[in-house]
Structures are given as C-alpha cells and as structure tokens.
Amino acid sequence: MPRPATNKRERLTAAAIHMARESGLESATIAAIAAAAEVPAGSVYYYFKTKDDVAAAVADGIAAVLADGREGLDSADDRAALTGFLRAYLDDSTAVVSYGTLLSTAATVGGADAHREALGWLTSRFAGLGFADGAARARALHLLAGVEGGAALAHALGEAEPLEREVAHLERWVANAGG
C-alpha cells in the first residue's frame, strides 16, 4: 500500500536529521535521504531545492524538537525545569554516545541559534531562582557548557559515563543553587 503524500516533507526531514546526527550533513546525499524516507529521489527536489534547504530543514526540525522538550518543562518550577533539561540528555544518552547531541547537530548544521535559544531559556530559569541577570547568564553558560562537554566526551569515547557523571554533578549543583 503506498504511503500518503501528505507526510513526505516530514519523512525527508526526519531522515536528514538522523543522517546529520549519525555522520554529518555532508554525507547525507539527496539519494540517501530519499531512500531512508522511502520517497522517490526526484521528489526530494520538490521540497528541498539545494543542500542549504536540507540544512535549514534539519536545523528547524531539531530546533522544534528542542523547543518542544523545553516547553514540556515550562510547567515545572525553575529548579525542576533545570533538572529536567539535564535529564533529557540522559534520556537520549544512547543516541548521544552514537551521534552527539541534537543541540550540537543543530549548531553544526544551522549555526548557533539553537544554543542561543537554550542559553536564553536556561538564563531565565536561573533568574527565576533569584539570580541577577549577569549571574543567571553565567550559571546558564556553566550548565550548558558542562552538559554539552560531557556529551561530547561521551560521544568521543563511545561510552555514556562522562555524560552520566556530569549530569549527576550538575543536578547536585542545581539542587544547591540559590539566588
């Protein structure tokens, strides 16, 4: 039974995101993206005219996933939201070890916007804990650098331990944070 045509773009974008995380966007050819999405290669050009269009779709798709994840934490108090942000890295640890983080992939593909958005969200959460603007931003930078660094090392070593240890450390740090 043929697939409905209505979700081709989503399937193509999902395939491109997977490839970008797995081996970098440069290795994601139109033919490979089409095959992974089970879409005829000629159809890809209807949705993505250039490799830059694919990169933009990947960056936008990852940004949407990350925004949805943060949105899911918005109802939590600030401390719980920060801990939830850290826990999301552990929930994705198998993929992090294999592919790196979604945030880093988005930055590689589409620039630093995803990091800036995460940093802004983290800064607002630390401000909610009572930290002044400069201190809230400094703490947000520290948390983001720590968890992304732990994830990068986990990816490089092919094991989750560096990420697990860094998240545990940062969770204790957040639990003791007070403005």
Please characterize this protein's 3D structure:
With 179 residues, the protein is mainly alpha-helical. The chain is built from ten helices and no strands. The protein has helices at residues 8-23, 30-37, 41-47, 51-71, 78-91, 93-99, 102-110, 113-128, 133-157, 161-175. Helix 1 (8-23) crosses helix 2. The mean pLDDT is 83.
Topology:
Elements: H1 8-23, H2 30-37, H3 41-47, H4 51-71, H5 78-91, H6 93-99, H7 102-110, H8 113-128, H9 133-157, H10 161-175
Helix content: over 70%
The tally of domains stands at 1
Q: Name the CATH superfamily assignment.
A: Tetracycline Repressor, domain 2
Note the overall shape: elongated
The overall strand count is 0
Q: Low-confidence parts lasting 5 or more residues at pLDDT below 50?
A: none
Looking at CATH, which topology would you report? Answer: Tetracycline Repressor, domain 2
Q: Which terms would index this structure?
A:
10 helices, Tetracycline Repressor, domain 2, 0% strand, 179 residues, mainly alpha
Compose a concise summary of this entry.
The protein has 179 residues and is mainly α.
